[in-house]
């Protein structure tokens, strides 16, 4: 998706530790015009799938998932990273390690929102080592739902997450795959 790649080159900032900051347009401040195009692109790429739910993980994936969901005309459900008082009933639970935060989270999702009748599209902003997606895949399997695929806005192709997910046989559509990052340059996979 050239529009996204151009924006990453213009406004993305490479930080030490293979961190790509895109917080000015994707995951802190959100450029809704760009994210709307991202949503349309996910719909185009997964148009052949009978999606009934979009699943993401809090927090950065929620906005992207919501905009994509309007093109699929389906609900968004998101796994929470913390137990709260308003969660009740039975839960799916998975452990997820955050690349950015260097922390392991128990992610939880109420069983009433995902079941065997669902066809799920996973959506997230980044894919690095694949931990978040692996946790969501575990939840989908536990629910008995059908995993149709995963849509990622930016994949770090030089890390192993994408390969892990593809090796599992999951259909993975990344809109921009960064092949290498240095302080002064980014290269994308074509």
UniProtKB/TrEMBL annotation:
- Primary residence: cytoplasm
Query: Where is the protein found, in the record's own terms?
Result: Cytoplasm
Catalytic activities: XMP + diphosphate = xanthine + 5-phospho-alpha-D-ribose 1-diphosphate
Q: Which residues bind xanthine?
A: 20, 27, 156
One Gene Ontology MF term: xanthine phosphoribosyltransferase activity
Keywords, alphabetical: Cytoplasm, Glycosyltransferase, Purine salvage, Transferase
The protein's matches in InterPro entries, at most eight in alphabetical order, are given as: PRTase-like, PRTase_dom, Pur/Pyrimidine_PRTase, Xanthine_PRibTrfase
Q: Transferase as a keyword?
A: yes
Its UniProt pathway annotation is: Purine metabolism; XMP biosynthesis via salvage pathway; XMP from xanthine: step 1/1
- Entry's NCBIfam families? PRK09219.1, XPRTase
Q: What does this chain do?
A: Converts the preformed base xanthine, a product of nucleic acid breakdown, to xanthosine 5'-monophosphate (XMP), so it can be reused for RNA or DNA synthesis.
**What's the subunit arrangement here?**
Homodimer.
Q: What is this protein called?
A: Xanthine phosphoribosyltransferase
| Organism listed in the record | Blautia intestinihominis
